[in-house]
Amino acid sequence: MRVAIAGAGAVGRSIAGELLENGHEILLIDKAPTAISVERVPLAEWLLADACEITSLDEAALQRCNVVIAATGDDKVNLVVSLLAKTEYGVPRVVARVNNPKNEWLFNEAWGVDVAVSTPRLMSALVEEAVSVGDLVRLLRFSHGDANLVELTLPPEAALAGTRVGDVDWPEDTSLVTIIRGTRVLTPNKEDALEAGDELLFVAAQSREEQLEDLLSVRREEA
């Protein structure tokens, strides 16, 4: 997979390094000469250019990319890069970094963004995830379909502890994608029984989050 990353700062280089280890082809783009540090990510391609300029993106052959990541420290730049990648070059997947949480509402399909990643929001979510049991934590927002990646650790008193996945009446527009149980990562099937302490990851419509949290967190009264 070919991935172009706009922004060769610490964030962009870190992403590039991870993706290179996974066997992907990486192009790093930055307009600042001081940011071009080939020795830090020697296996990546490097381009000294302004990613907001069409001529630069033509030179980068953005139309050949499967993914574009707008990872600069400037939200305005990330929005422009995302919009150009999607509308001018038809890039299938555009991921954008949100630096200021107040701007998060802009990072949507209208600006060509498929996935918006807010570093401050993600860090706070990870802190919540580490200390919360029984509370729904939003980890990531997807622009398409108004869906979020959410997590909940099943508390001991949950009504669904011991219930098989296939027997649960899950809310509409909600999908259980992973169960993390201790050191194991489980792909859920209908025969798996939920256990107290399970970390459950869902892709869910925002309108269903409260319903999902109630379902998983509350022990029903005995009739």
Give a brief outline of the structure.
With 223 residues, the chain is α/β, with parallel strands linked by helices.
Strand content bin = 25-35%
Helix content: 10-25%
Query: What order do the strands of the largest sheet run in, or round the barrel if closed?
Result: 3-2-1-4-5-6-7-8-11-9-10
List unreliable stretches of 5+ residues.
125-131
Distance linking N and C termini: 55 Å
Mean pLDDT: 87
Regarding quaternary structure, what we see is: single chain
Keywords: Ion transport, NAD, Potassium, Potassium transport, Transport
Protein name: Trk system potassium uptake protein TrkA
Domain RCK C-terminal: 137-218
InterPro entries: K_uptake_TrkA, NAD(P)-bd_dom_sf, RCK_C, RCK_C_sf, RCK_N, Trk_Ktr_HKT_K-transport
Structure description:
This protein has helices at residues 10-21, 54-59, 75-87, 119-131, 209-217, and strands spanning 2-6, 25-30, 45-48, 67-70, 93-98, 115-118, 137-142, 147-153, 174-181, 184-186, 199-205. With 223 residues, the protein is of the alpha/beta class. Strands 3-2-1-4-5-6-7-8-11-9-10 form an eleven-stranded mixed sheet, sandwiched between helices. It starts with a strand and ends in a 6-residue tail after the last helix. Keywords: Ion transport, NAD, Potassium, Potassium transport, Transport.
Keywords:
27% strand, alpha/beta, potassium, Trk system potassium uptake protein TrkA, RCK_C_sf
What order do the helices and strands come in, and which of them pair?
Layout: E1 2-6, H1 10-21, E2 25-30, E3 45-48, H2 54-59, E4 67-70, H3 75-87, E5 93-98, E6 115-118, H4 119-131, E7 137-142, E8 147-153, E9 174-181, E10 184-186, E11 199-205, H5 209-217
Parallel strand pairs: 1-2, 1-4, 2-3, 4-5, 5-6
Antiparallel strand pairs: 6-7, 7-8, 8-11, 9-10, 9-11
Protein name: Trk system potassium uptake protein TrkA
Domain RCK N-terminal: 1-117
Domain RCK C-terminal: 137-218
